[in-house]
Amino acid sequence: MDKIRLVGGTALRGEVPISGAKNAALALMPACLLTDAPLRLSNVPRLADTRTMTALLDHMGVQVGQEDASTLVLNAAGVKDTTAPYDLVRQMRASVLVLGPLVARYGQARVSLPGGCAIGARPVDLHLRALEAMGVEIELNEGYINARSAGRLRGARFAFPKVTVGGTENALMAAVLADGETVLENAAREPEIEDLGQCLKAMGAKIEGLGTGTLVIEGVERLHGAEHSVLPDRIETGTFAVAAAITRGRVTLTNTRADLIDSVIDHLRRAGVEVTVSDGALVVDATRNDLQGVDIQTEPFPGFPTDMQAQWMALMCTADGASLITESIFENRFMHVPELLRMGANINVHSASAIVRGVPKLLGAPVMATDLRASSSLVLAGLVAKGETTVRRIYHLDRGYERLEEKLLACGAHIERLAGTGAEAAE
Ligand code: UD1
User: Fold this and answer.
1) Which of 56, 112, 133, 266 could lock 86 by a disulfide, CB 3.0 to 4.6 Å apart?
2) Angle at Cα 177 formed by Cα 171 and Cα 178, nearest 5°?
């Protein structure tokens, strides 16, 4: 298995182009199932996860054309199979996003239950309850969700008892083809949902309230093809902003939007990082000030994103003073802590909170990635740690960051990917 080897200590300088958002692409790609006409998606990031979604759609009979490196043309006119098999769903939980579109369009779907993952139990009960409210009959057996609907789904009012990004996306994609009006209350407001909504509108859907907690959808009988460009990845943007900050460097992030990460920018500024925003670009400059500890609590958008918590913790390990990091979305998302401790960090976890006391130096060490964002926090720590850090199990990184080493290398980082040997295959 491949590893990443880093030698820390270089202040990053340069420019990083931000890719399309993984989480938006993973919701937009299944939207192709809602129509017989082609859906052309540009700015799709080339990641293990988007390849898994391609494999899943291909398995169902969707024609997937690759127009150029980041443009896909998806045509679901010939869908033959409405099953999402365990082998693909277990590789990527977001596979469950085919459920809403499949049952809305074909009146049936059989989707493997995703199961738990490294960061917690992560049930899909709310996805199912929202679909049931629209008249879908759901049965669980042999590890699969069997969903059926006799005719068109029925518009319904559903209030999510808890904010869920995937649940909102599945319900939204189902509601666009339902008979009548659907109102989704306490819907997630993440920008990726707005992006999905914009694409669905381009396909002929009638949706109001995008970007708010209440979505009102007037179902239509059919949707048509469309073209849509995936919005920039706010978590990649935030990760590279932290890379600049943790190395006390100065990096310009291009092809992105500051309004997607207002809360991260706000916390960076409070920590002493200078962030300048101009059209489509962000300049992150940590060359002038000492950095101070700043507390965060993860929250649904527009709060501080849980997908930036691990990276923020790495940064706080290098700041002056202490910071309190509270994880309120996932119950088991401090897997990076033991690894950061191996690099000389001073962190104490008390249930959902961690107290991080800045240390004068992190020290390079061999560490192991456990999930996607935990992996990026270890790379960030390695960028500033004294000596050599090797990060194992980087297949997690490949799920969510496009050309990570290349982009860091271009800013002066000492980073390389080491191809794994067969002996490590059992990792
Ligand atoms: C999405 C993102 C992920 C991000 C997360 C929270 C994608 C592909 N992934 O994941 O990167 O970390 O949002 O911003 O977009 N829950 C339930 N029942 C459900 C659904 C969720 O209890 O039916 C709980 C989850 O266990 C979790 C919380 O709700 O505690 C939020 O999860 P959710 O927003 O659904 O996350 P995902 O859509 O899986």
Assistant:
1) 112
2) 75
What is residue 122's predicted lDDT score, i.e. its pLDDT? 77
Instruction: Reply yes or no on whether the pLDDT at 423 is more than 90.
Output: no
**Atom number, ligand 1, closest to the C-alpha of residue 192:** 15
| Nearest CA owner, ligand 1 atom 11 | 307
Q: Alpha-carbon distance 380 to 401, whole Å?
A: 13
The encoded tokens of residue 421 equal 């040997």
Taking the whole predicted model, whether its pTM rises above 0.90 is answered as yes
pLDDT tens sequence across 337-376: 999 999 999 999 999 999 999 999 999 999 998 888 899 9
Q: How far apart are CA 371 and CA 397, in angstroms?
A: 8
Q: How far is the CA of 166 from the centre of ligand 1 (A)?
A: 6
Q: Tokens in use for 385?
A: 């740690």
Mean pLDDT of all residues in 42-49:
96
Four-residue CA torsion sign, 27, 29, 33, 39:
positive
123 among the known binding-site residues? Answer: yes
pLDDT, tens digit, 9 for 90 and up, residues 315-337: 999 999 999 999 999 988 999 99
Nearest to 171 by CA among 222, 127, 139, 138: 127
Residue 273 Cβ inside 6 Å of ligand 1? The answer reads no
pLDDT surpasses 80 at 118: no
CA distance 397 to 240: 14
Residue among 129, 299, 329 whose CB has most ligand 1 atoms within 8 A, to mutate: 329
Torsion of Cα atoms, 25 then 30 then 35 then 41, to 10°: 20
What are the pLDDT digits (tens) for 235-283?
999 999 999 999 999 999 999 999 999 999 999 999 999 999 988 899 9
